[in-house]
């Protein structure tokens, strides 16, 4: 099923209607049942995996203090399942992955939600938890398909004060509308349609310009598509009375790579920062190693392949350079001119966006040689 489709819109309308027509004491059960029916009808194997993951997660977190060995064993098992399907889909297009069901629906997202619950329980960040809360959190329909990877604490907070409010209704509908406009108008029509057609029709003598615009087109399209999906999920959640984590915050207007990664796919990057970066740095005392490990994990979460390893290392290297610059910054001459500070702000914002856009070329091309070729051609076109 296409996420942006009449079928998904019908699921949202039906879920919203049944949810609020149900007496309050049964609403959570109804939403769990609808989520399971949706998963079973679209991707039975994903529904089965989620049920097994949920059962294992509950058996782990119900313990007052799960042992480190148990947490490690469950983590390895979950990651192994995710990696198996990721390897099966390696090198395939998104269309092929969806049409052939190479990766079960929502597997990447609910795997990390399960691990989030287990890690938080192990670290003692929440005490007693009910089975209904765990199941309701994992079988939360608005975020099952495309995220965000919302947090259990936020879900638990909203669960006991859910009520139908006009403010939530209108804000939810507004966010859903924003999402469809981003995907349909900006992404599909303007970026892929008009700009894509313009790039494809450029004559051979404009190959450099074509390469440069191809890179820009890819970066803009990814933002409008992914942030549009997030808007729809966030809006759908709001219609049901829940506030989930924002996933994008104007990432292409950030001044440096560190701020970019705090603004892009926020639910994933904050998850990796909390559980990978913090863990690596606490043991190695090396922020550089932490940055490399975190971005490598972000890359492999998307796809287990050499191109995503290279993409992760590309961004990890960029963050390490930024860290070194920050360390040296106090020793550099301070710029007092407002004009120069404004010029530097503009330059750093433009440079950061281009670094990210050129990085996306790594995962859009099939070989390193092709990446270097398009980088070379686009750089010549940009300098001209």
What does this structure look like?
- With 384 residues, this protein is mostly helical.
- It folds into three domains: 6-159, no CATH class; 168-239; 251-383, no CATH class.
- It is 75% helix and 0% strand.
- It is built from 17 helices and no strands.
- It has helices spanning 6-21, 27-42, 44-61, 68-88, 94-100, 107-122, 131-138, 141-144, 152-159, 166-200, 207-239, 257-261, 266-284, 287-302, 306-328, 338-364, 368-383.
- 37% of the residues are buried.
- The model has no long low-confidence stretch (mean pLDDT 89).
The helix content is over 70%
Radius of gyration: 22 Å
Number of helices: 17
Percent strand equals: under 5%
Counted beta strands: 0
Mean pLDDT: 89
Biggest beta sheet summary = none
The helix/strand order is HHHHHHHHHHHHHHHHH
Structural class: mainly alpha
Which consecutive residue ranges, at least 5 long each, have pLDDT under 50?
A: none
Task: Sum up the overall morphology in one term.
Answer: globular
N-to-C CA distance: 44 Å
Overall number of domains: 3
């Amino acid at each position: 099923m296409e996420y942006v489709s009449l079928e998904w819109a019908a699921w949202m309308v039906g879920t919203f209607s049944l949810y609020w027509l149900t007496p309050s004491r049964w609403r959570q059960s109804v939403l769990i049942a609808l989520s399971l029916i949706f998963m079973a009808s679209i991707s039975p194997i994903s529904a089965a995996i989620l049920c097994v993951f949920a059962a294992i997660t509950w058996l782990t977190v119900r313990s007052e203090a799960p042992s480190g060995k148990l947490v490690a064993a469950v983590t390895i098992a979950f990651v192994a399942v995710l990696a198996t399907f990721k390897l099966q889909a390696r090198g395939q297009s998104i269309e092929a992955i969806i049409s052939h069901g190479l990766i079960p629906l929502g597997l990447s997202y609910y795997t990390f939600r399960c691990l989030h619950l287990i890690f938080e329980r192990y670290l003692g960040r929440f005490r007693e938890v009910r089975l209904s809360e765990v199941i309701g959190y994992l079988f939360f329909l608005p975020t099952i398909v495309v995220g965000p990877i919302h947090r259990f604490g936020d879900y638990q907070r909203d669960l006991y004060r859910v009520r139908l409010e006009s403010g939530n209704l209108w804000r939810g509908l507004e966010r859903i509308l924003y999402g469809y406009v981003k995907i349909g108008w900006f992404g599909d029509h303007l970026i892929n349609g008009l700009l894509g057609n313009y790039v494809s029709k450029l004559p051979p003598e404009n190959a450099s310009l074509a390469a440069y615009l191809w890179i820009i087109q890819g970066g803009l399209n990814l933002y409008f598509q992914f942030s549009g999906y997030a808007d729809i999920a966030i809006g759908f959640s709001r219609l049901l009375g829940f506030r989930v984590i924002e996933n994008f915050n104007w990432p292409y207007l950030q001044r440096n790579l560190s701020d970019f990664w705090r603004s892009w796919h926020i639910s994933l990057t904050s998850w990796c920062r909390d559980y990978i970066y913090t863990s690596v740095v606490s043991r190695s005392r090396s922020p550089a190693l932490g940055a490399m490990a975190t971005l490598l994990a972000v890359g492999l979460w998307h796809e287990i392949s050499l191109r995503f390893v290279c993409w992760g290392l590309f961004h990890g290297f960029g963050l390490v350079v930024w860290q070194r610059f920050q360390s040296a910054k106090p020793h550099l001459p301070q710029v007092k001119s407002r004009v120069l500070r404004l010029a530097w702000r503009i330059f750093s914002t433009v440079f950061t966006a281009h670094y990210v856009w050129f990085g996306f070329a790594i995962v859009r091309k099939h070989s390193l040689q092709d990446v270097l070729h398009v980088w070379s051609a686009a750089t010549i076109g940009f300098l001209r």
